Amino acid sequence: MNAHILESYVVDNPEQAKALLNPLRGEIIGQLTEPASATEVAKAINETPQRVNYHLKTLEKVGLVKQVGTRHVRNLIEVLYLAVAKSFIMSDSLGWSHDAIERLKDQSSLAHLITISERIRKDALSLLEQSEQNIEIPSASLQTKIVLPEKKDRNAFLNEYVKLVKQLVEKYQVNEASDENYNVMLSIYPEPTGGTNNDTKE
């Protein structure tokens, strides 16, 4: 099995850059620091294997993931994929301005926010059905608003936010296999111009 992976990869191909900025493909490639099948990736990100397989083919076509082996599962042969690197850096040779790259990143983040919202809705409906069968469903949600008028304040808040969440996850994470898995999905975004019917930001 050819399971070699680079620590970082400089993206200088426009097709690779566009593929990498797709939020779902970004999630998929983030799961491929170790060899995995479309089924395993789909389970990890709570997507359908068919949809993951479609995006894997696109990532493979542009050279961001590669096939590194196969294995037999029951009567099927699963293809194992691996990302070409653990992290990706946009090259200046792409010819994109800094502002253009930042706009693309913003668009990707917003698209990812929509994906997360759809996933939470789908999971919540499924869990509601379980709760109607008298199954206990531990869950929690937080909604709040914060005023961050300056860019430096926003950056400082986001950096500390990510750091604290990472520390919290590492504190309570266990390495043993378990059926008690919980999804943690967090988001921060500015209030749309004109306001909305929902003032929450997280």
UniProtKB/TrEMBL annotation:
Cited SUPFAM superfamilies: Winged helix' DNA-binding domain
| Keyword Oxidoreductase set for record | no
CDD domains, per the entry: HTH_ARSR
> Which GO-annotated molecular functions does the record name?
DNA binding
| Keywords attached to this entry | DNA-binding
Q: What is this protein called?
A: Helix-turn-helix domain-containing protein
- This protein's species is Fredinandcohnia quinoae
